[in-house]
Amino acid sequence: MASSMDLQWYYQFDGWKYTILTLFGLAYLLYIIRILDLAQRLGYQRRWVFIKLPIRILYFSSLMIALMGPSFGYGKKYIEAIGKDIFIAIDLSKSMDTQDVPPSRIEKLKFELQNLIKILFADRIGLIIFAEDAYMHCPLTYDKAALDLFLQNIHTGLVSHQGTDFYPPLKMAIDRLKDTQNSLTQVKSRILILASDGEDFGEEAQSILEEYQNNGVRVFTLGIGTAQGGNIPHAYQGYILDEKGKPVVSRLNYKNLESLSEQTGGQFFEISKVKNDMSQLIKTIQEIKGERRDIRTLDVSYNKYEYFLWIALALIFLDFVVIVKVLKL
What we know:
By secondary structure, this protein is of the alpha/beta class. The protein is 39% helix and 22% strand.
């Protein structure tokens, strides 16, 4: 364990500091040569020329030490970990492959969510994927590199049972978010972002919303698609067909998503060809006050550069006021 008086440096003695030291030495050498010549002409003893040399070396050295940030002495520093718990539920039904939002709904969504994860660096984020059922793709974590990796690997083929049902992801998210609650938790800091084209074929989603209201968890819905819609690509070729043999058209159903967000105190946002509310979603989440999750104690050393700076200033002042005979050296 380090001693309380161990000296450490915030900056290393690198190349530019050697350059400054060399320039100072050369400049002062030229100064001494000039003063010696002047003293000889005026008939003064040369030894008086060197009376201020120790003072100037000391204050220059003190300035250099101050620039390097000397740290000694240890103390305690308390750091609060503040953030929010955010689950992102991503619809992986086949309709998310529709290309009315290029290159496709799911690829556009992944791109936008990658930016969201980078910006919300202080929050714990988890990923839920769903279609007819829901699966935990990544639990709540601060590890943004892991989140990015999990997000890149998402595609509609990850879920076997197709169709879309909002109840499973809503149920899974509220259960996990309730598990994160503790004595320090503020209810406003737990959030679900549900990203989908809004085509909900389940019948139980409304039954879970009361649980969200009672626990203060808000649902922000992110609708991706267009009102005109588009055909759903088949896994092999062509498009998915209905019973009549015609291509199925998938359209953004924003009413289902708006209803979910309104009933939980959240808000609906949209991504389409002509509209992208992702920045507004990020801003809205950032404005929500985070909770204090933990208080950590760190051993830190204190930068004492100001001591050496004051010494240097005092010596510079002394150099200014002390006069050797008629020459200000």
